[in-house]
Amino acid sequence: MNISKAIRISVLIATSSSVYAEGVDPFTTSENDDLVAGNMSNLTASLDFIYQGTYIPELRHIQSNELFENNAIVDSQIKWTISDDAKIKTRGMVSYSLKQLGGNSSDESDIKALEYYYEHRLSKAGHYVSVGRKNLGWSAGFQWRPADLIDNGFTTKNFDSMDPARYSGIDQAQYEMIGGFVDYSLLVSTHDKSFYRGKQIASKISFKRFIDGSLFYAKVGDYSEKFGLALDGNLPWATTFVLEAVQVEIDKSNLTDPFYFGKTLESLSGIGSYQDIFLGLTRYIDDKQRFSVEYFHNGRGFRHGMQEKMIDQSVSHYMKSGGGSLFIDSKIFEEQYLGRNYLYVAYTGFHPGYEAQVKPSVLVNMDDGSYIGSLSVKKEFGGNSELLIKANYYHGGKESDFGSISPGISFGVSYLLHVF
């Protein structure tokens, strides 16, 4: 494998050659790759059907209950290369989910527009403008994407998920300059404008040498500024690396406003700044095997057991300062914001005899010692379908990050059919 090319496609735990990921996961592909228009008008379309089923024998915080979850998803996209200088892309999904927990069942359906944008090349020199909903794609991460400054976070702890919703774009107007050694991007977004009470402005400048480097800045609404650095490149012994670090500054005076207080983790924790850090190393054993080690620091999160204490202190301070009625949005305590430091280790190998990919992995919460051990097997059939089977083992105390999910082994199956 060409290691210099591989830096973009597998510095993380992205799927290997997959119909669903178009051969390369779009999050780990350089955003510049999609800017090159064809020489003539061209219309292409694709339609994928995805089924994912999960079985967890018992949830610790709900005794004697088994969880069954079934998800059916249709993922479709259309690309229209209008001319050598212009193109339109749309991508959307329709999903249906059925959950059964003990004797209770629930279902929900959703239709979501993931991307729809128009892009135009201003000159042959590599100047582009785009308007619409577009995947930002500044981060090299797959699960955790700190360099996507406007919409970043620890999106999932399921490393083999095929959920297309993770590719959702942000509403933006963007200018990009793609040069030989320097790239530059500037965008204005209305992503979550009602939440941030203002527009988001972000910029990035990248330098392409032996080691690629990028500097980031974003003004996210009324109460947050972000500064970031990203590096990626090749190390000796067929090893690639990526480092992303973001410093987030919080305007605490705005967070005392009832519009924000109780709706953001920052407003309840009282913090004035935090850091998000991601580091990934991938060692290519040969063209069919690789070994990955990744570290995440979730600056927004907090240690388990701190939640009630933090709420009590913040609410008391808010009331003493003359605050009125208070509603705390429970969504800010969803699992992806818990914990601080994570380590992920994975081996990915392709077995030629069975023509199947095997991947054992473990994800550890370094603060409470809980972990998920996983084994997945993925096989493609006929070039247009893919089956993945996996088993997860959860370990940890009842109040820990992963121990609260299940006392033992869960099972999952994913099937993708590339219709056209």
- Our measurement of the CA-to-CA distance between the termini, rounded to an integer number of angstroms, reads 28 Å
Q: From the 3D coordinates, which CATH architecture would you assign?
A: Beta Barrel
Radius of gyration: 22 Å
Individual helix count = 5
Proportion in β-strands:
over 45%
Briefly, what CATH class? Mainly Beta
Extract low-pLDDT stretches: 1-38
What's the order of the H and E elements?
HEEEEEEEHEEEEHHEEHEEEEE
Averaged pLDDT, please?
Answer: 80
* Structure summary, number of beta strands: 18
* Largest β-sheet summary: 18 strands, antiparallel, barrel
Signal peptide: 1-21
Keywords: Signal
What's this entry about, in short?
With 420 residues, the protein is mainly beta. Helix content is 7%, strand content 50%.
Word description of this protein:
Keywords: Signal. The chain has about 425 residues and is mostly beta strands. It has one domain: Porin (Beta Barrel). Helices cover about 5% and strands about 50% of the residues. The protein is built from five helices and 18 strands. It has an 18-stranded antiparallel barrel. A hairpin with a 3-residue loop joins strand 10 and strand 11. The chain is globular and about 60 Å long. The protein starts with a helix and ends with a strand. The N terminus is likely disordered.
Detail the topology: elements first, then pairings:
Blueprint: H1 3-6, E1 42-56, E2 67-83, E3 86-101, E4 104-123, E5 127-134, E6 170-178, E7 182-189, H2 193-196, E8 200-207, E9 211-220, E10 224-235, E11 239-250, H3 252-255, H4 265-269, E12 273-286, E13 289-298, H5 307-320, E14 341-351, E15 356-365, E16 371-381, E17 385-395, E18 409-418
Antiparallel strand pairs: 1-2, 1-18, 2-3, 3-4, 4-5, 5-6, 6-7, 7-8, 8-9, 9-10, 10-11, 11-12, 12-13, 13-14, 14-15, 15-16, 16-17, 17-18
Keywords: Signal
